[in-house]
Design the sequence.
């Protein structure tokens, strides 16, 4: 995450520097040779390119930062709501920075047939519950957090969770049809482990993002 942001920041700085250099070269050519006064069409194209670069690298960035500052409190509220939905209420102390995400229990193939069927049923019920929680949160906040702030990584983690929930449901159905197939059971437990890791990644990403927003808020008020 941090490496991607650092790479993006380096790219933006490089692009901005290149745009400034490009504009400086154009001004130098104009002052030294008067070329743009002689080639009207070409000068118009160059002026359009300079304005385009200024718009995407300067003006849009200024507007984006102003929007992010204006909606920062609501952005923090949206992310906090997502974090509360992900956290295990019994083990987490969110106000103190302790976030324990909810998780799925692995399937135990050594239980009797009745217990195994009950486990599979409980897994499917939990998939439905988690999907409902995720859908409710997304319906309230997804469009907002997608349009304000740097929340792309969070939305990608949410999409990953939705996919792994579907994989868990499909895996339980396959194991129910072939309860003695060790490869299907192993595959189901791998998907459950993957889903738990994705929950943890999302919770950590939101926690870090909230900490960054809180630090930015303190800096602005100082």
Sequence:
């Amino acid at each position: 995450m941090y490496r991607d942001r650092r790479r993006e920041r380096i790219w933006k700085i490089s692009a901005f520097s290149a745009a400034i250099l490009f504009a400086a070269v154009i001004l130098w050519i104009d002052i030294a040779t008067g070329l743009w006064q002689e080639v009207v069409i070409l000068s118009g194209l160059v002026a359009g390119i300079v304005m385009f670069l200024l718009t995407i690298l300067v003006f849009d960035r200024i507007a984006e930062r102003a929007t992010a500052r204006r909606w920062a409190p609501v952005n923090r509220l949206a992310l906090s709501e997502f974090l509360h939905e992900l956290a295990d209420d019994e083990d987490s102390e969110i106000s103190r920075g302790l976030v324990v995400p909810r998780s799925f229990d692995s399937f135990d193939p050594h239980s009797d047939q009745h217990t195994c069927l009950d486990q599979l049923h409980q897994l499917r019920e939990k998939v439905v519950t988690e999907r409902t929680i995720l859908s409710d949160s997304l319906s309230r906040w997804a469009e907002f957090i997608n349009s304000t702030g740097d929340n792309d990584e969070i939305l990608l983690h949410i999409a990953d969770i939705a996919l792994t929930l579907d994989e868990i449901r499909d895996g339980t159905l396959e194991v129910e049809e072939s309860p003695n197939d060790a490869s299907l059971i192993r595959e189901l437990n791998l998907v459950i482990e993957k889903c738990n890791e994705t929950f943890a990644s999302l919770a950590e990403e939101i926690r870090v993002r909230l900490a960054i927003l809180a630090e930015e808020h303190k800096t602005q008020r100082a």
